[in-house]
Automatic annotation (TrEMBL):
The keyword DNA damage does not apply. Signal peptide: none annotated. It comes from the Bacteria. Pfam families: DNAG_N, Toprim_4, Zn_ribbon_DnaG. It catalyses: ssDNA + n NTP = ssDNA/pppN(pN)n-1 hybrid + (n-1) diphosphate. This is DNA primase. A zinc finger (CHC2-type) spans 43-67. Contains an N-terminal zinc-binding domain, a central core domain that contains the primase activity, and a C-terminal DnaB-binding domain. Its cofactor is Zn(2+). Monomer. Interacts with DnaB. Residues 262-346 form the Toprim domain. It is an enzyme of class 2 (transferase). It comes from Acidimangrovimonas pyrenivorans.
């Protein structure tokens, strides 16, 4: 029946939730504050000794921090008294002295109809169970024996057998006076298209009753005994009792077991659920012949905040996992998560338990991975990222996936985790010249390395004289690198802007690599002070050395922390200059290597002169190292002329 507007609000204001709950619990008065309506007790929905069940009398809601049961007075009566919504309202209305509104005849008729259908379904359960013990059910019993399904399990789950005849159940039910329209509406039989007598929906199948959270039989799943049958598993059609996208197999017992602390395991089929339950994993459910739906996922989260999706260890299982990921991403929020337990290849939970017992299944559950890891695996497995374009494609797909997450906090944490996984994949995949070091991989994670023998730069007391006398162009590179790193530390908002360039640039020594690694790991930090603290915790020695250089501490982009445009221009320019100079260096080195032993003496001399001229051009600008914004046009023009002239090519006389 429908209730008039405001009736429920009036009912809730007239009753005290603590009084309603107080009939079922013993309050912990040491923890409760009765004057404020803040009451605590052991939860009535799961076994516990501590008082984790909280009632807020003023707001009219309860919540258990153990099993996560929550609701108001109506839902509490429904759950504890095992009654429907209207029955719970009637109980509370009588307690509050409120007359119930007149019943809507059509609504009452509809409720009565569902009750009749449920009674017919229960009669069908009994018929199928009886048929399993007959001669016709011998093959089905043999199958269940081969699957090692005990008699106790068969009884607990109400397993039966639908005989091969066309009207076995129909004749049984009509013979007991059940109306034909009820049999048809319950989905137990189908009307004949040829005008004959209706025929049974299920024939020659092992029958698994499907029950709702209250334990009422609402549908069946039938497993075909004939291997040539077009449908190995067949579910009841949708009826007033059954919506397969909103139901879960073993819902009620799983909710009870999860309330007692067991993890909720989501398997693919009936036999998996039964095997899990018999092995001691009572909080096991399965979708009903389809991929997991949004409604089923929400049902799971009402049972447990972090269901474990246990999928078959094959390609189909991985595809199912991928579908669940896409479904769940927009629905994630604090307290609603998923973990994935992938079975050994070629096995499902039933087979794993038979092979390795409950201990083997527990080991697989213990190894379950959070959803972010499956998302990463889906986007990277079997792919090669040996070009900027492929890396960019990966970034695009990951961004598209993460953008589906509505909760900003979870979206941020996913981004942080993906960034770490990405750095583990790409951080050391580039080939580096010997001696340039890098952050070594240890146990799947990146750890900043120690300083190599080649330091970032000279000590503060000697750096100026060293720079003035230096002939090694690598010192100039290190100073550029230092300015880039210091500028990004002072302007964290630019890290993501230059992420790709920062990843690809070759840096001198483990110190600069450690700083670069730390910058990329904490790219989401927006406060310069906080970022500096995090980097100091991971690469303190490198950070100290960085700020010991005068040109770093006095450089305008580092000092002017509010001038982001200046900093962006500086980083872009210095990165471009590094890449340009190193590109020329690689060109000349490659040419010298290719011509080794083949060029004449004059050509070799000209090539060596070009390299020497480049070094002189670079060194001349190191005289004033306190400001790296100097004009490099002269050096660039000279080097470009050498390249344009192709001096390493032997000219025809």
């Amino acid at each position: 029946m429908s209730l008039p507007p405001g009736f429920l609000d009036e009912l809730r204001t007239r009753i005290s939730l603590s009084q309603v709950v107080g009939r079922k619990v013993m309050w912990d008065m040491r923890k409760s504050n009765q004057g404020k309506g803040d009451m605590w007790a052991p939860c009535p929905f799961h076994q516990e000794k501590s008082a984790s069940f909280h009632v807020d009398d003023r707001k009219g809601f309860y919540y258990c921090f153990g099993c996560h049961a929550k609701g108001d007075a109506v839902s509490f009566v429904r759950e504890t008294e095992n009654v429907g919504f209207m029955e719970a309202v009637e109980i509370l209305a009588r307690e509050a002295g409120m007359p119930m509104p007149a019943r809507d005849p059509r609504a009452q008729q509809k409720a009565d109809r569902r009750t009749q259908l449920a009674e017919v379904m229960e009669q069908a359960v009994n018929f199928y169970r009886m048929q399993l013990s007959t001669a016709q059910g011998a093959a089905a019993r043999d199958y269940l024996d081969r699957r090692k399904l005990s008699q106790g399990a068969r009884d607990r789950f109400g397993i039966g057998f639908a005989p091969a005849g066309w009207q076995g159940l129909w004749d049984h039910l009509t013979g007991k006076g059940v109306a034909e329209d009820l049999i048809l509406e319950a989905g137990l039989a189908k009307a004949s298209s040829k005008g004959g007598k209706p025929y049974d929906t299920f024939r020659n199948r092992i029958m698994f009753p499907i029950r709702d959270a209250r334990g009422r039989a609402i549908a069946f799943g039938g497993r075909a005994m004939d291997p040539t049958d077009s449908a190995k598993y067949l579910n009841s059609p949708e009826t007033p009792l059954f919506d397969k996208g909103r139901s879960l197999y073993n819902h009620g017992p799983a909710r009870e077991a999860a309330g007692k602390g067991q993890p909720l395991i989501v398997a693919e089929g009936y036999m998996d659920v039964i095997a899990l339950s018999e092995a001691g994993f009572g909080a096991a459910v399965a979708p009903l012949g389809t991929a997991i739906t949004e409604d089923q996922l929400r049902l799971m989260w009402r049972i447990s905040p972090e269901p474990v999706i246990a999928l078959d260890g094959d390609a189909a299982g991985m595809r199912a996992a991928q579908r669940v990921i896409d479904l769940a991403l927009p629905l994630l929020e604090a307290g609603n998560a998923l973990r994935f337990c992938l079975m050994p290849e070629g096995q499902d939970p039933d087979e794993l338990i038979k092979a390795q017992g409950a201990a083997g299944m527990q080991a697989a559950l213990d190894a379950a991975q959070p959803m972010v890891r499956l998302l990463w695996q889906r986007e990277t497995e079997g792919k090669v990222f040996d070009s900027p374009e492929r890396k960019a494609a990966l970034d695009k797909s990951l961004r598209a996936a993460i953008s589906k997450i509505a909760d900003p906090s979870i979206r941020s944490h996913y981004g942080e985790e993906i960034k770490q996984l990405r750095w583990e994949l790409f951080g050391q995949s580039r080939r580096r010249p010997e001696g340039q070091g890098g952050a070594p991989r240890r146990n799947g994670s990146w750890k900043p390395g120690k300083w190599s023998e080649v330091k970032l730069g000279p000590a503060p007391t000697t750096k100026n004289s060293l720079l003035a006398a230096a002939s090694d162009i690598a010192i100039e590179d290190r100073l550029r690198e230092a300015l880039i790193l210091a500028t990004l530390i002072a302007h964290p908002s630019l890290i993501l802007r230059f992420e790709a360039e920062l990843e690809g640039v070759e840096l001198h020594g483990d110190g600069h690599n450690a700083l670069r690694n730390a910058l990329l790991r904490h790219a989401e930090v927006s406060d310069p002070g906080e970022l500096r603290e995090k980097i100091a915790a991971e690469a303190g020695e490198a950070l100290e050395m960085l700020y010991s250089l005068g040109h770093v501490t006095t450089a305008p982009p580092v000092r002017k922390t509010t001038d982001t445009e200046l900093a962006m221009m500086c980083v872009a320019e210095e990165l471009a200059k590094l890449e340009a100079r190193r590109g020329v260096q690689r060109e000349i080195e490659d040419a010298m290597e290719d011509l080794s032993g083949l060029a004449d003496e004059g050509l070799t001399w000209r090539l060596s002169q070009a390299a020497e001229a480049r070094n002189r051009a670079g060194q001349s600008h190191l005289e004033d190292a306190t400001d790296l914004g100097e004009d490099r046009a002269a050096m660039s023009k000279h080097l470009q002329s050498l390249i344009d002239g192709e001096i390493w090519v032997k000219k025809k006389s």
